[in-house]
Amino acid sequence: MTDIPASGAPAKGWRPYQIYVVGLLLAVTVCNYLDRIVLGVLQEPIKIELGLTDAQLGLLTGPAFALFYSLSGIPAARFAERFNRAGLLALAIAIWSGMTALCGVAQNFGQLLLYRIGVGAGEGGCIPISHSVLADYFTPRQRGLVMSVVSSAPPLATILAPLIGGFVAEAWGWRSAFLLLGLPGVVLSLLVWFTLKDPRKAAPANTERRPATFWADFKWLLGTPAFVFVFIGGAFVGIANAGIAGFTVSFLLRTHEFSLSQAGGIVGMTGIAGLVGAMLGGLLADKFSDSRGRSYVLVPALGSALAAVAYLVAFGAPDPRWAMPFLLAAAVAYNMKNGPLYAAIQNIVPSTMRATGTAVFMVAATVVGSTVGPLLTGVISDTVAGQRFAGPGAFTAICPGGRAPEGALESVNAACAQASASGLQVALLVMSAIFVISSVFLALASRSIRINDPTVAA
């Protein structure tokens, strides 16, 4: 296939089908993240209708999704090392889109938990499969920008989620938003099935070793210091981001008393800022790449450090006019890691481990990050709210769902609202500081990182 470059070939621009592949996989990844993050936009009306606690919300956005996301991601990656990746990706899209639609008919916490598990199980194969395909279409020093384009999906989904989650939910309810989100996956799964070519089938005979067992590959990853440091750094990035992303809308509603559509609009603006950060990170990583590929971890390290500062100011500021610009700045800084970090993984591992390397790395961002982040945020929020509740009795008993019941005294309403807002603010400040830890480990990865490609000069 003429669109498949040799790994070490100099970058000569993108050919038409390469552009199509990037666009298609970007759309797939947007769908992947949109179905994942929309719960953060819809969780306040869900919390009120179903009478949930913040800890339960954290469970839905964290462990319920993340554990099964990664449990399915590794076997999907192992299949992707051996079988047609287009067919596997099409099947994964169909599964997660169907489960997203089912979230709209959930009648209680248990049902919603089950459907979110299904979403996670379906989405687990998306990133490992799509990134391994992209790595086969582009050279190592093109991958920073390529991965940044496809990894602009999170900020794009952040823009779209409020439009669907905020405006559709306000007009027709949160259930309609979930049902609507299930439709694009049907179209995308058909496009992937019929139009995506697996480049591995058309590539010249591979001179590298054939795919080994998972445990042999896993041992190789554990014995590679650069990968280990990237994994740990990615875990702390995941913890901080998942906790913040899952509760930013709730923070704006509780602390600054925005409406759902207003808060969603602000989060949408952070999505636009995130696009800037994603493109900036990819361009910087490619521009300053050396023979070892150190820029692919140093750019994310810088972004994490800047994100920590910006988020601390945003969540600590008493005035929303101060909070908003720093939320935008944080979005730019955080998303600088999107493409470079994934490119670093593809550069570190051999070509026979590309899907597996990504899948194992996603354990850091999902099982560790998305499991710990939202749940820890919710637990800290509930704990601090209980300590600062000034009303009669226990916070959880007097304020079900974070609000006083109908007919309660005005003083009780105020006490519930103040405690709920204060608890969440403290939790988000803790999450913001965790970005500093990720920055340290990503910087450490730069000391041992190498591009694992024999055609790239050392």
Automatic annotation (TrEMBL):
Residues 21-450 form the Major facilitator superfamily (MFS) profile domain. PROSITE patterns: MFS. It holds the Pfam family MFS_1. GO terms for cellular component: membrane. It is a multi-pass membrane protein. CDD domains: MFS_spinster_like (cd17328). It is found in: Membrane. It comes from the Bacteria. Its main location: membrane. One of its GO terms (molecular function) is transmembrane transporter activity. Keywords: Membrane, Transmembrane, Transmembrane helix, Transport. The chain crosses the membrane at residues 17-34, 55-74, 86-106, 145-168, 174-196, 226-253, 265-285, 297-317, 323-345, 357-380, 426-445. InterPro entries: MFS, MFS_dom, MFS_spinster-like, MFS_trans_sf. The keyword Membrane applies. This is Major facilitator superfamily MFS_1. It comes from Brevundimonas subvibrioides (strain ATCC 15264 / DSM 4735 / LMG 14903 / NBRC 16000 / CB 81) (Caulobacter subvibrioides).
